[in-house]
Design goal:
Oligomer: heterodimer
Strand order of the largest sheet of chain B: 1-4
Number of strands of chain B: 4
Number of helices of chain B: 13
Bound molecules: adenosine-5'-triphosphate, magnesium ion
Number of strands of chain A: 10
Radius of gyration of chain A: 18 Å
Structural class of chain B: mainly alpha
Strand content of chain B: under 5%
Distance between the termini of chain A: 31 Å
Order of helices and strands of chain B: HHHHHHEEEHHHEHHHH
Order of helices and strands of chain A: EEEHEEHEHHHHEHEHEEHH
Shape of chain A: globular
Shape of chain B: globular
Largest sheet of chain B: 2 strands, antiparallel
Largest interface: A-B, 30 and 26 residues
Strand order of the largest sheet of chain A: 6-7-8-3-9-10
Largest sheet of chain A: 6 strands, mixed
Strand content of chain A: 25-35%
Structural class of chain A: alpha/beta
Number of helices of chain A: 10
Chain lengths: ~250, ~375
C-alpha cells in the first residue's frame, strides 16, 4: 500500500431544506485501502456516498478523485466511468433481467448507445462472467430473474455487478444487511480479498462484521454529518464519545 | 443475448406465417373477389394503428416512458403525406385551380412557398422522417436532459400534442384548418380510388409492419435492449453503472416518433383524410389502451391490441355508437385489474390454470 490519495474530501457540506446532512466533512482514502465507516442512523453515511457519486452536489467543499479530477463537476455516469462503483443500501439490481444479464450490463466496456446495439459477447466476457458467478456463488442461478433472489443473494449480485465494472473505488453501503452470519462472514472475506487491488469504503452497522473487515485498518465514525473520530477498531470502540453516540443502542445494531 | 428462446422461436415462426398471409394471401383473395375492398381497406387502417401502438409500447412497455405524444408524430407523418397528396390533386379540385381548394377558399391565388417542394414525393417522404424525427430529437433532448420522468413526461408530451393540434386547427397555419386535407386523387401516378392502388397500399403497410416488428425484435435481443428494459426497471442502477440513460431514451424516443410517423403517412392515403382531430391527446391515450389490452412490453401485444380494439370499434360504432367510449374505458379497467398482461398473456394463464386443475386430484 503506498500513500497516494484515491479520494480527497475536504470541508464538504450539504443541507437539505435547512437540515445539515453533512457538515464540514473531511475525509481521505488511500489507494488500496479498505476503510470502514460507521455511525448511527441518519449520521449522513449514505449522503456521503451520494456526494461522491454525483447523486447529490455539495453546497461547498472539495471532492476529488485521485489527485486532480473534480468530482463535483461531473454527473453520475461520468463518475462511474472514471472508476467509482457503488452498491446501494437497498439492493438495487435489474429485477426483470437474469442474473447473467445483470452482469452483462455491468461488465466493463463501452457504454454508448450505438456500441450497445452492435456489441457481441467475446469469450473473455463469458469467462469473466462465469468467474464472477462462482465468486458470488450464483452460478447455479444464472438464469434466474434477479427479482426472484433472496435479499442476501441480491446483495451479492450487486457486489458482483460492482466487481464486473472493475472500479478503482468501491463504495459499499451496508452489504451484510439481510445476510445470515455465515454469509456475512464470507462477504467480509471477499471484501478483504479485494482490498489492495481496489480502494474500498464500506458502510456498516454490524459490529462483528466491522471488526472482521477493519482488522488493523482505519475506522471512521460519522455523527451528525461530520467525522466524530477516526482510528483502529479497538480504539474507536473504547472511545467515550463514540460510546455516547451509540448509547442505549446496543453493540451490534442493525 | 443468448440464443433465441423457444418462446421467441415460436413467435418468429408464427410471425412468418401471419406475414405471409397478410402480404400474399389476403391481397390475392381480394384480387379474386373473395375479400371485399372495404375489408382490405379496413385492415390497412388497422395495421397503421398497429404501427402507432408499437411506437407507444416501445416507449411505455419497454422503456417505462408513457408518451402521450405519439398521435402527434402519427399525424405529422400523415400531414406530410397529405401535403403531397394535395399537390397531386392538381386542378381537379372543386375550384379547378392549380392550388388546393382550401387555399383558394382562403383567398390565395398562388401556392405558399413552403408548399412548393411537396409536389415531389421524395421530398415529402424525407419530411415524413425528418420533421417528426427532429421534433422528437429537440423535445426529447430538453426533456431527458432535465430528467423529466414519469407522470411529468406524460403531461409534457400531452401538452406538446395539444399545443400542436391547436396550431393545426388554425386556418392561418395554411394546413387546412379543422377540415384538414381530403379528396385525394393520386399517389405516385396511381388512382387512389382504384382497388388495385388500395391493395398495393395495404401490402406496403403489411411489409412495413413486418420490417418494424423484425427490427425491434432483433434490437430487443441486443445489449441495447437490455439497457432499455433496465432503464424501465431501475434507471438509477443503469445511471450508476456508467450508462448515459438520457442518450438511450432520446434514441428510443426518436425511433418511436419515426415509426408512428410512417404509420400516419401510410394511414392517410388509405383513409383518405387527415385533420387535427387525429392529433389530440385522446388519440394517444387510445393507443395506450390498445397496448395495455394487447399486452404491454411485448411486440405482438400492441399489434393484437390495435387490431382487436379497432375491430370492436368498427362494430360498436355501428351497433352502439354512443357507448363506444364507455366500452373502451370499461375494457381498459377490466384488463388492468383482471388481466394485467393483456391478451397475449391468456395462453400462459390458461396453461397454469390447466396445470392447477390437472394437479388437483393427486394432491
Ligand atoms: N435527498 C434527500 N432529501 C432530504 N433529506 C435527505 C436526503 N438524503 C438524505 N437526507 C437526510 O439526511 C440525513 C442523513 O441521511 P443518510 O441516509 O445519509 O443517513 P445514514 O447515515 O445513511 O443512515 P442509515 O444508517 O439509516 O442508512 C437523514 O436525516 C436524511 O433524512
Ligand atoms: Mg444509509
Amino acid at each position: 500500500m503506498n500513500n497516494k490519495y484515491m479520494l480527497t474530501v475536504e470541508d464538504v457540506s450539504k443541507t437539505y431544506d435547512g437540515f445539515k446532512a453533512i457538515t464540514d466533512l473531511t475525509f481521505y482514502l488511500f489507494e488500496g485501502e479498505l476503510r470502514t465507516v460507521i455511525g448511527p442512523n441518519g449520521a449522513g453515511k449514505s449522503t456521503f456516498f451520494d456526494l461522491i457519486t454525483g447523486r447529490a452536489k455539495p453546497d461547498k467543499g472539495k471532492i476529488e478523485f485521485g489527485f486532480d479530477t473534480d468530482l463535483t463537476e461531473l454527473n453520475e455516469y461520468e463518475i462511474n466511468r472514471l472508476g467509482v462503483g457503488r452498491k446501494f443500501q437497498t439492493p438495487s439490481v435489474f429485477t426483470e433481467h437474469t442474473v447473467f444479464n445483470n452482469l452483462v450490463l455491468s461488465l466493463k466496456g463501452s457504454r454508448g448507445v450505438f456500441a450497445s446495439i452492435f456489441k457481441r459477447h467475446s469469450s473473455t466476457d463469458r469467462d469473466r462472467i462465469d468467474e464472477l458467478l462462482k465468486l458470488i456463488r450464483l452460478d447455479g442461478k444464472r438464469d434466474w430473474k434477479a427479482g426472484q433472489l433472496a435479499h442476501g443473494e441480491k446483495q451479492w449480485l450487486e457486489i458482483g455487478m460492482l466487481l464486473a465494472q472493475d472500479p478503482k473505488i468501491l463504495l459499499v453501503d451496508e452489504p451484510a444487511a439481510g445476510m445470515t452470519d455465515e454469509e456475512t462472514h464470507r462477504t467480509g472475506e471477499l471484501l478483504i480479498s479485494l482490498a489492495g487491488k481496489h480502494s474500498i469504503i464500506v458502510i456498516e452497522h454490524d459490529m462483528t462484521f466491522v471488526k472482521q473487515i477493519a482488522r488493523d485498518g482505519q475506522v471512521t465514525v460519522l455523527h451528525q454529518g461530520s467525522v466524530l473520530c477516526e482510528g483502529k477498531f479497538d480504539a474507536v470502540q473504547s472511545n467515550p464519545k463514540v460510546r455516547e453516540v451509540y448509547l442505549g443502542r446496543g453493540k451490534s445494531n442493525k | 443475448m443468448s440464443s433465441l428462446s423457444t418462446r421467441h422461436k415460436v413467435e418468429l415462426i408464427a410471425a412468418g406465417f401471419i406475414s405471409l398471409f397478410f402480404i400474399v394471401i389476403f391481397p390475392l383473395l381480394n384480387a379474386h373477389g373473395m375479400v371485399s375492398d372495404f375489408t382490405i381497406n379496413l385492415w390497412g387502417k388497422y395495421l397503421c394503428y398497429a404501427l402507432l401502438a408499437i411506437s407507444v409500447d416501445l416507449l411505455w412497455g419497454y422503456t417505462g416512458l408513457l408518451s402521450l405524444g405519439q398521435a402527434l408524430f402519427f399525424s405529422l407523418g400523415g400531414y406530410m403525406m397529405g401535403m403531397y397528396l394535395m399537390r397531386m390533386i392538381g386542378d381537379l379540385g372543386q375550384y379547378h385551380k392549380p392550388i388546393p381548394d382550401f387555399l383558394v377558399f382562403l383567398g390565395w391565388t398562388e401556392l405558399p412557398k413552403f408548399w412548393k417542394p411537396f409536389s415531389s414525393f421524395p421530398f415529402a417522404f424525407s419530411l415524413i422522417l425528418l420533421l417528426p424525427g427532429l421534433l422528437a430529437l429537440v423535445f426529447g433532448f430538453l426533456a431527458f436532459r432535465s430528467r423529466i420522468k414519469g407522470v411529468y413526461f406524460s403531461i409534457l408530451t400531452q401538452a406538446l400534442t395539444y399545443g400542436a393540434s391547436l396550431m393545426f386547427f388554425r386556418n392561418d397555419m395554411l394546413m387546412g384548418g379543422n377540415n384538414g386535407f381530403t379528396d385525394f386523387k393520386f399517389i405516385l401516378g396511381h388512382d387512389l380510388r382504384s382497388a388495385t392502388t388500395q391493395r398495393g397500399l395495404f401490402i406496403v403497410t403489411a411489409i412495413v409492419l413486418l420490417l418494424v416488428y423484425t427490427s425491434l425484435r432483433l434490437l430487443s435481443h441486443t445489449k441495447f435492449g437490455l439497457v432499455q428494459r433496465a432503464i424501465r426497471d431501475g434507471e438509477n442502477r443503469v445511471l450508476f453503472s456508467g450508462y448515459a440513460t438520457a442518450h438511450f431514451k432520446l434514441f428510443i424516443f426518436v425511433i418511436a416518433a419515426l415509426i408512428a410517423s410512417i404509420g400516419g403517412a401510410l394511414y392517410v392515403p388509405q383513409v383518405g383524410i387527415i385533420n387535427p382531430s387525429e392529433m389530440t391527446p385522446d388519440k394517444s391515450l387510445e393507443a395506450v389502451v390498445w397496448c395495455a389490452v394487447g399486452g404491454r412490453g411485448t411486440l405482438v401485444g400492441p399489434i393484437i391490441g390495435a387490431i382487436s380494439i379497432n375491430s370492436l370499434k368498427s362494430w360498436a360504432s355501428r351497433a352502439a355508437p354512443d357507448y363506444w367510449l364507455v366500452i373502451l374505458g370499461g375494457l381498459f379497467v377490466v384488463v388492468v385489474l383482471l388481466l394485467p398482461g393483456g391478451i397475449v398473456s391468456i395462453p400462459a394463464r390458461l396453461k397454469s390454470l390447466w396445470q392447477r386443475v390437472t394437479r388437483q386430484p393427486s394432491a
